[in-house]
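Consider the tokenized backbone below.
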């Protein structure tokens, strides 16, 4: 059965809804309605290539970090936040494709030349059941779009679930971000996650990859949590 026919039959059973506003989207497989698609809060062209926040980023929070560059497509709010929640809940291929297209639109092909794509590892839930591999779905979609090879399963780690709202210091103190590299990593790595918040997950992954021999590391995310207080202080 074609995926399009499958989507149509599924839509007869469960009518599609926009994951942001709940309205009916134009297409039976669309994740967002047309209005919300136009409201995705894209980041401006001028962003800091270390912390991925709009310039000026103030005292750059990524001035000292294990990665070389960081890019993000949107600000983590509104329709972008709804997409992130949808991907976390479902690891939907459609949602991942939409988000990957926004990321790819921000990158020059030459920026990825010679790089391999690695998802940050899926976190385990508190009951030890495997978490939904949303970063894996996003990295897979980005690999298809960019033609860069996907390397899954090289990174693992973190004993327990990441809490998006936890403060970085608290999270680091619980050592939840220790990552393990199973083998020799590619020399050039693109790390992929859905959201770049404090950067603690990227930092743990990048540190582990660099220790294992990676030479260039770029962190890409669909959405960036923007620290407006820090930016205001820069003016
Ligand atoms: Zn909508
Ligand atoms: Zn910065």
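A designed sequence for it:
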């Amino acid at each position: 059965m074609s995926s399009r026919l499958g989507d149509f039959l599924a839509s007869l059973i469960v009518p599609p809804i926009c994951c942001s506003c709940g309205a009916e989207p134009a297409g039976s497989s669309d994740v967002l309605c047309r209005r919300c698609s136009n409201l995705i809060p894209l980041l401006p062209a001028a962003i800091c290539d270390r912390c991925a926040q709009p310039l000026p980023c103030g005292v750059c929070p990524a001035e000292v970090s294990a990665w070389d560059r960081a890019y993000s497509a949107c600000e983590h709010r509104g329709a972008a936040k709804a997409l992130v929640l949808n991907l976390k809940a479902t690891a939907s291929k459609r949602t991942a494709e939409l988000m990957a297209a926004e990321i790819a639109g921000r990158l020059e092909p030459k920026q990825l030349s010679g790089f391999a794509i690695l998802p940050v590892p899926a976190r385990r839930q508190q009951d030890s059941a495997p978490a939904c591999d949303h970063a894996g779905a996003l990295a897979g979609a980005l690999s298809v779009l960019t033609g860069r090879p996907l390397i899954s399963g090289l990174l693992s780690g973190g004993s327990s679930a990441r809490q998006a709202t936890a403060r970085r210091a608290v999270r680091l103190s619980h050592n939840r971000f220790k990552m393990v590299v199973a083998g020799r990593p590619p020399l050039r790595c693109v790390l992929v996650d859905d959201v770049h918040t404090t950067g603690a997950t990227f930092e743990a992954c990048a540190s582990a990859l660099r220790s294992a021999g990676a030479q260039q590391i770029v962190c890409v995310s669909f959405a960036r949590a923007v620290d407006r207080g820090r930016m205001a202080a820069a003016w």
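Residues 48, 50-51, 53, 57, 60, 62 surround zinc ion (ligand 2) (CB under 6 Å).
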